[in-house]
Amino acid sequence: MKKALILIVLISISLSGYSEHSNREEKKESQNYINSYRNMKTLNKFEFPALPYSYDALEPYIDKMTMEIHYDRHHRAYFNNFVNAIKGTEMESMSIEDIFENISKMPASVRNNGGGFYNHVLYWEVMSPNGGEISEKLKNAIDQKFGSMDELKKLFLDAGKSRFGSGWAWLSVDKSGQLFVSSTPNQDNPLMDVADKMGVPILGMDVWEHAYYLKYQNKRPDYVEAFWNVINWQEVSRRYDMLVK
Ligand SMILES: [Fe+2]
Questions:
Q1: What are the residue boundaries of the structural domains of the chain, listed by start?
Q2: What is the CA(62)–ligand 1 centre distance, in A?
Q3: Does the pLDDT of residue 8 top 80, yes or no?
Q4: Cα 189 to ligand 1 centroid, rounded to whole Å
Q5: How far is the CA of 91 from the centre of ligand 1 (A)?
Q6: How confident is the model at residue 245 (pLDDT cuts 50, 70, 90)?
Q7: Ligand 1 centre and the CA of 168: distance in Å?
Q8: In angstroms, what is the span from residue 209 Cα to ligand 1's centroid?
Q9: DSSP codes, the chain
Q10: What is the CATH code of the structural domain delimited by 64-243?
Q11: pTM surpassing 0.90?
């Protein structure tokens, strides 16, 4: 009886030690992730960034007129409306990522226009006429998580095709450093505390009609397939490599 009691006490001590250790590890892991994420925050919320290529650079996949209207009218409107929506509020001194982490408490105009601004900056950057090479590290992570690049392509494009109404498809990294594919409605994104699954997006595809209607009309699947040809894998890899050490 006495022996059994001693055994129980020993097991409890060892389990509590393990749980403390695993909590510490989890906290450390989460801290590393947060640090990497904070280092990668580069978006100045008061600056309207230049398009990194010309309007016709992504032809024939994305036509010149769509690019011009999308960048210079839709995107600019999100930016202007966002700046106006945060003017004179505490959000002026917060990073856009911190605003997103608390978006459920913010006005709808901030959620819609702040999301619109951030999402489009990412969208322009993860496209390119000559996409470059995917890093070995990201390639391995994709193979490990999804089985192959083809499987990721299918999942990601399906997320865009099946989003009802307007929205986005994403490839993101969660707090444990794992890749995941998701989709959000309207101008939401995975950084927002309203997202079904939160993470840092490294690839985003706009599936609003304004992104494709002039060339593809109602054929969203054709645009989605075309998008795969203009992904800037070098930039997607840069974002991944910065987040996951
Ligand atoms: Fe858009």
A1: 64-243
A2: 13
A3: no
A4: 13
A5: 23
A6: confident
A7: 9
A8: 8
A9: -HHHHHHHHHHHHHHHHHHHHHHHHHHHHHHHHHHHHHHH----TT--PPPSS-TTTTTTTS-HHHHHHIIIIIIHHHHHHHHHHHTTSGGGGS-HHHHHHTGGGS-HHHHHHHHHHHHHHHHHHTB-SS--PPPHHHHHHHHHHHSSHHHHHHHHHHHHHH--SSEEEEEEE-TTS-EEEEEEETT--TTSTTSSS--EEEEEEE-SGGGTHHHHTT-HHHHHHHHGGGB-HHHHHHHHHHH--
A10: 3.55.40.20
A11: no
